[in-house]
Structures are given as C-alpha cells and as structure tokens.
Design a protein that fits this description.
The complex is a heterodimer. Chain A is α/β, with parallel strands linked by helices. Chain A has 7 helices and 7 strands, in the order H-E-H-E-H-E-E-H-H-H-H-E-E-E. Chain A has a 6-stranded mixed beta sheet, with helices on both faces. Chain B has 6 helices and 16 strands. In chain B, strands 6, 7, 8, 10, 11, 12, 13, 14, 15 and 16 form a 10-stranded mixed beta sheet that branches. A 4-stranded antiparallel beta sheet of chain B has the order 1-2-3-4. Chain B is flat and about 80 Å long. Chain B starts with a strand and ends with a helix. Classes of the chains: A alpha/beta, B alpha+beta. Strand 5 of chain A pairs antiparallel with strand 12 of chain B.
Chain lengths: 278, 354
C-alpha cells in the first residue's frame, strides 16, 4: 500500500513539474507593448496594449509591439551599414525578442512588430515584423502588404498609427487568413505624366501609320513578276566549310534577396516576416 | 613542305579567299581550284558589279514614224504629248495646265504593241481616297475625277536569260548551355550557286516626266492583252512620246534582273543563319527589247502650292499615288488619340495601383 501511495505521490510530483515547465513557456506576458524608444503617447500605449491582449486572447497567439532605441550594445549607429546587413541585425533582434517572450520552439505562436529609432541618431531607424510557430505560414502571403502599410505610416513618423495599422493587419490575417484589398489610390504625378507620354507615343504611332497609308508609291527593285515559269535551272550548289568559332558566356545566377520567406534564428526556431529601413 | 601565306585577295572567279603558294609562285583558290598570277589578282575587282552586256538587243524596235498623229509641247512643263489629229484641246496630264495647240513636227515612232484602255477604271481614285482620314476636305472632287486623263505611257520591255554563278559567305549558328555557361557556335561556309533563269518583258518607262516609282508601282500589266498598235487606240486618249531611249533604260532593268537572280540563289541557302554575297559572275544571253504603250489614267491636283499625282493602271484598275496630309486633321487626330490613350493608360495604372 505504501508503495502504491509513494508511486502516486511521485507521479503527481512529476505531473506538477511538467505542468509548471509547460506553463512557463505559455504564460501570457505581463505586457504586450514595450515602448523602449518612447515613441507612443500614454493613451496610445494603453490602447495598443489592450488591443494586443485582446487579439492574443481571441486568436490563441501572442501579439507584441516593441520600440527600441538600440539593437544591441555592439551597434551604436547602423546608418552606414548596408541594407542587407541592417535587415539581418534587426531581424535577429526581433526573432530573439519574440523567443524571449513566448519561448523558443515552433510550437509557440506569436508575432511582433519591432520599431527601431536610434536614440542618438533619429535618422538611423527601421522596423521588422517577426512571426513564429503557426504565424510563420499564416502571415507568409501577407507580409509584403503589412510591410507596405506599416512603412507608409512610419515614414510619416506616425508611430501610433503604424502600430495600430499593424494590429489591424494581424486582426485580418487571424480572422480571414489574408488582408483585404486596400482602397485604390489615384496614381502619382510621375505615373500620370508617364501615362500621358505613353498615350502620346501610341497616338503618334497610329497617326504616322495613317499618314504612311497616304502614299503607296514604291520603287520596284526586283523582276520577280517577270521570271519565266520553269526557267530557273540550278546546275550546281557547292558549300564548303571554312571554320568554326565557339564563344561562351557565364550564366547569370538566379539567387536573389527579399523578404516573405522563412528563416531560422540562433536557437533553431523557424521565423517569418520582413521589414527594412523607413 | 610548301609554305603558304594567307593574303587578303579574293578569287576573281568565285570570290573565295586566295592563298599564296610559294612553290608555284601564284595564287591558288582552294575552293574552285583556279590559279592566278599576282597581276591578275591585283587588277581583279571581284566586288564591283559591272553592268550586263545587253548586246544587240534593240533590233526589233521600229524607227518608222506614225502618220495621222500630232504631238504638242506643254509650254508649262515641257512634256511632249501625242494625240490623234482630231484632238482640239486638252490639258497636260503632268501639270494640269491647258496645252497650247502648236503642232510639233517631230513624229511618233510606231510602237511594237499597245494594251488598250479599259473603261470605267477612273472611278477607282474615289475609292482609293475613301477612308483616308488625313486627306484635306474636297481635295478630290467629283469634277476633278471627271477630268481624269487617259495617257498611253511609253515603256521598254526587256527580255533576257541570266546565266552564271554567285558566291556567298554564309554562317550557321547553334546555341546550347550547361550548368555554368551559355555557348554559341558559329560555323562559316562558302557557298556557290550556279544556274540560269529567263525573264520576259521587264517594263521600264521611257518618259522623263513620268515618275519612275509611280510607274513601277502600277505593275504588273497583263501582257496577254498586248495587241498590235493602231492609231485608232489613241482616240479619246493622249500618248506620251518616249524621251528616254532603251539604252538609257537598261540600268534599271539590269538592277532588277540582278536582284531577282540574287534572291533565287539565296533561296537555295535557306538553311543558313546569314547569307552575304561576296562575288557574282553573271552574264546575259538572248537579250531583246520592245517598245510598247501601256494605259495609265493620270490625275494631278494641287494642294498647298504642291502638285500631287495619282495614277490608275488603265488595264487592271490598280491605284497608285501620294495623297497630301491635312495639318489640321493630323494634329486633331494626334491630340485626340493622345487624350484617349492617356486616359486608358491612367485607368490601367489606377486599376493596377502603380
């Protein structure tokens, strides 16, 4: 009997340990919006916090927003690094942050918007959207649109609106699987001028074609019409080979960069997303 | 072993490159197996295409002057016009001015043949102008079409057989790739085609006043309807007396024969990617010429101080001409189409959210 009781006690102990361990990874974070760079007004931050919490709860995910003035002590100013290098740094930072909150591993789901504005050089700035777990595939087809919409707001330094736009996008993706078509905007002045140029060129081609039909006088260069039927007699046809040249050119490699795919963080967890400077 | 040096001379026979053979001290063509000394090679200009020797081609042309006709000289443009003796007054078909009735005593050489006019073909001009949106308003009026002049235009018809060979430098190109490179292989060949072909009745107009391109464009005429000339065919029509003789017309026939032979020979080399003629050795046999009158309706109309001429093949009805362009209509269409297509491009840009 004692053995049975001891066995049950050990089992309960192990179960409680597993439960505690698992709970540590899936515990909701205490705060969903970290405004380290101080880009939000207090009211904005509280609204964003409430929305992140609500989204995370309703869609069984973890929706986070982080603003920061630094991407690590070793990076004091990233304004001079290449876009590719910058994207690698901010991507790793966003992935690490997401994993630090929801835990590493593909079984943990979450999405984060990281906004970086260098505290010493405001022109050194960028953003990244990182996804993990089921969100890697959920957001895969929508990342480019999210980037475009968020970047449009960030470029105007309207950080609250950018974060809000990000949450709108998360809501659409979680609910509908994709973003709705954006309302169509009128073409820019440059595109309008291009349209006028294209219209003029097409019109010019048509009118010149009409003009060319005004004249059908052509000098005859051959006497083909006067070749006597069956009079062509080819007596001999000799072809001799002279030489052969072979040239070769190296084929272009088809690899190219860009967001929208998935990658692995330093922990081995798969992430998706995209971003860049703004 | 004989030392051979490649020199930049070409074979006078076939156009292929020559090699210098130091053993025999002459130039050898490895292609046609000919041998030449230095003077021959130096003086040979294989790329120059000398005119054909047409020989005694004009033995059939009559020198008999025709009776019952009179010819007039237009005091405005100098054209010589022939009509039957009953013609009272007419307009010059070239410049549209009234011809002064001063008989010129020069005669009218009897042609070898004539293709008579067919009636009702002048109306084709109206159909030709239809749908030409850039044509100035009222440029071709009904009255103007009624005044269309039927003119027998003098033509020389050349017959010949062209015989000989031509040499071409040809290439064949092949492309392929492996994982690292794209390859292009170009093979060079010399090809010689030897043959002959005959031409019959190549027309060249014998009138200085008649635009050569306009007459070329009226071709072809159906020579099966060529009949022996009789003065009665001039009744109601004018005729132009030839002022370009057969000898002066030869270069135009010559060029057309050469071009046609070249096309036929190139057709034998259709498997090659490029074909470039390097030499030809052609000659004519059985040359002959005939002097005929061919029917052409002419209309000349003035617009903005410039004469515009039309011609209708008086046998087949084919209409040829250069119509004037109304500047007002040109710009109206240009701006209208520009607005239309700019709007379409703008809508597409908006739809695609460019």
């Amino acid at each position: 009997m004692k053995r049975i009781l001891c066995g049950i006690a050990v089992c309960l102990l192990l179960l409680s340990v597993f439960a505690l361990t698992a709970g540590a990874a899936n515990d909701p974070p205490s705060t969903y919006v970290e405004d380290g760079a101080g880009l939000f007004f207090a009211s904005e931050k509280s609204d964003l916090e409430a929305r992140c919490r609500d989204l995370s709860s309703r869609y069984d995910t973890c929706c986070l927003i982080l603003t920061t003035g630094s991407l690590g002590n070793e990076y004091t100013d990233l304004s001079d690094v290449s876009d590719y290098e910058f994207e690698s740094i901010i991507m790793a930072y966003a992935d690490d942050y997401l994993e630090s909150v929801i835990g590493a591993g593909d079984e943990n789901d979450g999405v984060v918007l990281v906004i970086y504005v260098n505290e010493n050089n405001p022109s050194d700035r960028g953003y990244w959207v990182s996804t993990q777990g089921k969100e890697v595939y959920g957001f895969k087809s929508s990342v480019e649109q999210i980037k475009n919409r968020v970047k449009a707001k960030l470029s105007g330094e309207d950080y609250g609106a950018a974060a809000s736009t990000f949450l709108d996008c998360v809501e659409y993706v979680e609910r509908d699987g994709e973003l709705p078509e954006p309302p169509k905007e009128l073409p820019s002045l440059g595109i309008t001028v291009l349209c006028v140029v294209i219209g003029f060129v097409i019109a010019l081609i048509i009118v010149l074609s009409m003009k060319s039909k005004m004249k059908n006088v052509r000098t005859a260069t051959t006497a083909d019409n006067y070749l006597v039927n069956n009079s062509v007699n080819i007596r001999n046809r000799n072809v001799i080979f002279i030489r052969k040249d072979v040239t070769r050119t190296r084929r272009e490699s088809s690899s190219s960069g860009g967001g929208g795919g998935s990658h692995s963080s330093s922990s081995g967890t798969s992430h998706g997303g995209g971003g860049g400077r703004f | 072993m004989a030392e051979k040096e490649l020199l930049s001379f070409k074979c006078p026979s076939c156009g292929a490159p020559l090699t210098y053979d130091s053993d025999s001290s002459d130039f050898a063509c490895s292609y046609c197996d000919s041998h030449f000394d230095f003077e021959t090679v130096k003086n040979a200009d294989v790329n120059a295409e000398k005119p054909f020797d047409w020989g005694d081609y004009n033995k059939n042309v009559s020198t008999e002057e025709l009776e019952g006709t009179v010819s007039y000289v237009c005091q405005s443009c100098g054209a010589e016009i022939v009509a039957d003796a009953t013609t009272a007054a007419t307009r010059c078909p070239y410049c549209d001015n009234v011809v002064l009735m001063e008989p010129n005593l020069t005669g009218f050489v009897k042609p070898n043949g004539v293709i008579p006019f067919k009636k009702g073909l002048a109306d084709r001009i109206k159909a030709f102008c239809k749908g030409k949106w850039l044509l100035p308003k009222n440029f071709v009026t009904a009255n103007k079409i009624k005044e269309v002049q039927g003119v027998y235009v003098p033509f020389w018809l050349f017959d010949c057989t062209c015989d000989g060979d031509a040499t071409y430098e040809t290439t064949r190109v092949r492309h392929w790739s492996d994982s690292s490179y794209n390859y292009t292989e170009t093979s060079y060949y010399y090809a010689t085609i030897d043959g002959s072909m005959s031409f019959s009745r190549i027309p060249v107009d014998g009138s200085v006043k008649m635009d050569d391109a306009l007459m070329d464009s009226l071709e072809p005429f159906d020579y099966s309807q060529l009949v022996e000339f009789a003065p009665g065919y001039l009744s109601g029509y004018l005729a132009d007396r030839f002022d370009v003789n057969a000898e002066s017309s030869l270069p135009r026939a010559d060029a057309r024969v050469r071009q046609s032979v070249d096309q036929v020979y190139r057709g034998q080399l259709s498997e090659f990617s490029s074909v470039m003629r390097v030499a030809s050795n052609l000659k004519l046999t059985d040359p002959a010429v005939k002097y005929v009158l061919l029917p052409v309706y002419l209309i000349t109309s003035k617009y903005a101080g410039k004469n515009y001429s039309f011609a209708v093949n008086g046998q087949t009805g084919k209409v040829i001409g250069s119509l004037p362009v109304s500047k007002g209509k040109f710009w109206s269409f240009l701006l209208g189409f520009s607005a239309l297509f700019s709007a379409i491009a703008y809508l597409i840009a908006w739809w695609l959210q460019l």
